[in-house]
Amino acid sequence: MTRPVEGVGVRQPYDGIVSTIGDTPLVRLDRIFPDLTARLYAKVERFNPGGSIKDRVAHRLIHSAVAAGVLTPRRSVVVESSSGNLAIGLAQICRYYDLRCICVVDAKTTSQNRALLTAYGAEVDVVTTPDPVTGEYLPARLRRVKELVAETPHSYWPNQYGNPLNPAAHRRTMAEVVEALDGRVDVLFCATSTCGTLRGCVEYVREVGLSTVVVGVDAAGSAIFGEPSAVRRLLPGHGAAVRPALYRPDLVDHVVHVSDIDCVASCRRLVRHEAMLVGGSSGAVLAAVDAWRPNLAPGANAVMIFPDGGDRYLDTIFSDDWVRENFGEITYLWKG
What we know:
The protein folds into two domains: 199 residues, Rossmann fold; 103 residues, Rossmann fold, CATH 3.40.50.1100. The protein is 34% helix and 15% strand. It contains nine helices and ten strands. The strands form two sheets. The protein has a six-stranded mixed sheet, sandwiched between helices. Helix 3 links the parallel strand 4 and strand 5. The longest helix has 16 residues.
């Protein structure tokens, strides 16, 4: 009989890869803003098996449909639009349940993400022409989804943009945060695109009667918490060209709009000061905290939701050549 290693608790084996979704770590960051008197935490969602917070949604959408008999293994076809992370989460979950998966992506989806989709066995349908009215890819992707559903037998569109199971999946995300901090979450910073994470977290906060101040983090030029503008948005998964069906005007107490270059700068600051490699939406959340710092009371618990890691952005956010090509020589990005 082997002796247990000191300091290692007993952990039962997980029942399949999908059972590892959730229970991601909440990490205190004390180096990025050394003069901050509030306590700053990050909910690090890259630890989900598919690498992002979207695993929670993908599993909820597909598992519920399988359990209800809407989807049949080896017969049904899941068709969905995504800029990257939700597609990867769906590809993994569909492979687990033996479902055919068609992911409608666009020209901004990285080659690495497309390769991941292919590795999971998903079919990748790339929209190369943006919507002629808005100049954005999302409306064009949604049209393509409807075309594929119409022409593909036994197909099913989960519709992450309007399905109430999307925010329902994130009630657990917020519950994990609240439990880790013994019920005290003074300020929540959350980026948004479909409004799923934001809405789920807010609904949980209000249901349990917390006084948490919610700061929504939107992209400059996005249509979610303002009027869409001609600002060019290069980073996928943050903001939206069309206000999603899950949006509600009372979701947030305050909104901070963040530019692409501030996302990039904050991602790089996190590497330098916290040794954390995160994606663009996470950088946006940190930039919002930086802008909001004067409003954070001493001793307050401020929580950021970090949707994914930075390994999928090595050719963009963490590529000096890409940054120079799109933003010019931004010297402060390379300084300590």
